[in-house]
Specification:
The protein is mainly α and about 160 residues long.
Length: about 160
């Protein structure tokens, strides 16, 4: 009796999902009568792979900043500041934090997702690794968080 209820509930949920997905549709967007003027953005220069990618050059910003944000000097400077602060935090304890986070995430994932432990271990390890890296970088350099916020706030 319990098996039939479980199967019936699964069938009803799957059926509701199929009905919901098959009846959903979107209307096409109306076409604009006049084309909007395009903003001219300077094309980025080619990256010179013989030079450091993230290190600011003597004549200006890093190659990555110039390639990702062409013509936006404020955003390039904020990007370079952010990558420099993250690098300092990583050097002051990033790798041990990643290792601890990955191990804790793996243990929690393997224990908490009981029906499919292998998937839980994989997901837990990935989440723990990212969390460990973020926490370790922030503990290694408290200025990194402010630099990231400044980068995202810069237009």
């Amino acid at each position: 009796m319990k098996l039939s209820r479980t199967v019936m509930l699964s069938v009803l949920v799957a059926g509701a999902m199929v009905v919901g997905a098959s009846t959903a549709f979107a209307q096409p967007q109306p076409q604009a009568i006049e084309p909007q003027p395009q903003e001219i953005v300077p094309q980025p220069q080619a990256i010179d792979w013989s030079q450091p990618l993230m290190t600011p050059m003597p004549d200006g910003n890093s190659q990555a900043a110039e390639y990702l944000f062409p013509g936006n000097e404020a955003k390039q400077s904020a990007f370079d500041n952010m990558t420099n602060e993250i690098n300092i935090g990583w050097n002051n304890g990033g790798l041990p934090g990643v290792a601890v986070g990955a191990n804790v995430g793996s243990v929690v994932g393997c224990i908490s997702i009981f029906p499919n432990m292998l998937a839980g271990c994989i997901v837990g390890t990935a989440i723990g690794t990212v969390a460990g890296a973020v926490i370790a970088i922030d503990m290694g350099n408290p200025d990194a968080q402010a630099a990231v916020e400044e980068f995202f706030a810069t237009p």
